Amino acid sequence: MRSVRARAALGATVVVALALVGAGLSVLLVLRANLTDQAGLQAEVVAREVAGQLALDVPYDRLEMRAEEDHPVQVTDEDGRVVAVSEDLQAISGTGTGQVTPAPSPAAGSSTGSDDDGDDDESDDGRHSAPGRGEVDSGEPDFGNGTATVDGETADYRFATVRATTSAGVTLTVHAGAPLAAEQEAVGSVRGAMLIGLPVLLLVVAVVTWLVTRRALRPVEGIRREMAAITASEDLSRRVPEPGSGDEIARLARTTNETLTALEASVDRQRRFVADASHELRSPIASLRTQLEVGAAHPELLDVPGAVADTVRLQALAADLLLLARLDAGERPGRTTLDLGALVHEEVSQRTGDRIAVAVSVPAFGGFEVTGSRGQLARVIGNLLDNAERHAERAVSISARVERGGVVVAVTDDGAGVPPDERERIFERFVRLDDARTRDEGGAGLGLAIARDVASRHGGRLTVEGAREGGARFELWLPSAG
């Protein structure tokens, strides 16, 4: 089942079905328990009425029983023999004995109560005996379910058992029943209504969930279609529709458009990079080819120093492009701990051909440990010094200090400086200011871009500002090791 709508509708239907089945069973159980308790209360009332008569020594054949109210009654003695039953009781179960025919019993009835002629008997001592009085068990009666056949009709009953003691000390047990027809009818009606209503309700839930889910996912389908069209046309300027609902789908569409914007910018930057790289490579390659062709035709005219210079420039440009490609591919810098002050001294010591000597101001006490790639950080320092050499008039200096939990390396020159509105643009790839083009004999506009990218990937930053000498001051900040 691949459709989200189908899975949502099925899931909602299953959850509602389980909830309704559980609630329905609970309702049925509670309803049955309440109706059964009511029937038991009715049976208890009848049983206590009969037990009260027995406690007053009413003869068995004169007991008033609710036969007309469909309450079967069975009375047994201590031996379990039936001594009295209600009228028209033909069969009974669930009371301990299935007998419905009273057996002769000498324990009660004719031996208690007054004579038929109404005359009071005198006792041996000459006193008149008052009517006897026993007692009814006041404890909680016993309940049970069973059946009884009254006047040819068999039904289920709730029986209550109450014990009574006559004045003669005879214990009798009264079993009185109340019909469970009302309970069975009510439970059956509710169960039937549930069996009919449950499928209808589940169908309604499934249909409503399907419609609501389809309406909710309609913007998603629009996003999918637009993304498919963008993929087919390769037009990254297109954007997916953003619904005005402000919900998760709207945020998804907004994030998708932001991703498309970033992707479009990345592709444009990549295209410009390829175009600029092709342009920058074309010049030294064309120059080198021309010199080699001239040298092949006229060996005496071969400009070997110029060919070497073009080769070196081509080699440096290829190295820069390779480094940028690795950085764009997400290459992580190394985790080597190194002394940035020592790295500065090492880089300056290798610059023997500079037209302006570099003044180094790095304290000897150290404390300039950073973590990163030694080769990449050396490239950053070298690029900053190369940039300063190209623009300086008479002085280039480099210094290091510890500041704000990091190490700062500053490279300063006394050249024309960088205009404030160009201080961010110079860090873009293949960007060279007009003044730089007049001085630059071989730069491709990649040095500062590489330096900032490497600094950023090391958790640092590279900024430029005006120097007190009137030129530019580049500051590289890197977090201290540990």
Summarize the structure in words.
The protein has helices at 4-55, 181-233, 248-297, 304-328, 340-349, 374-391, 434-439, 447-457, and strands at residues 73-76, 82-85, 89-93, 135-136, 142-150, 153-165, 171-179, 336-339, 358-361, 369-372, 396-403, 406-413, 461-466, 472-479. It is of the alpha+beta class and 482 residues long. It folds into three domains: 4-116 and 130-187; 248-328, Orthogonal Bundle (Helix Hairpins), CATH 1.10.287; 336-479, Heat Shock Protein 90 (2-Layer Sandwich), CATH 3.30.565.10. The strands form three sheets. Strands 1, 2, 3, 4, 5, 6 and 7 form a seven-stranded antiparallel sheet that branches. Strands 9-11-12-14-13 form a five-stranded mixed sheet. The protein has a two-stranded antiparallel sheet with strand order 8-10. Helix 4 (304-328) packs parallel to helix 8 (447-457). The longest helix has 53 residues, at 181-233. The two termini are 53 Å apart.
Briefly say what this structure is.
By secondary structure, the protein is an alpha+beta fold. Helix content is 47%, strand content 18%.
* Secondary-structure element series: HEEEEEEEHHHEHEEHEEHHEE
The biggest beta sheet reads: 7 strands, antiparallel
Overall strand count: 14
> Which strand-content bin applies to the residues?
15-25%
Q: What's the number of structural domains?
A: 3
The end-to-end distance, rounded to whole angstroms, is 53 Å
Number of helices: 8
Point out poorly predicted stretches: 107-131, 435-440
Shape: rod-shaped
Share in helix = 40-55%
Structural class computed from helices and strand pairing: alpha+beta
Question: What is the C-alpha radius of gyration, as a whole number of Å?
Answer: 53 Å
Residue-averaged pLDDT, rounded? 83
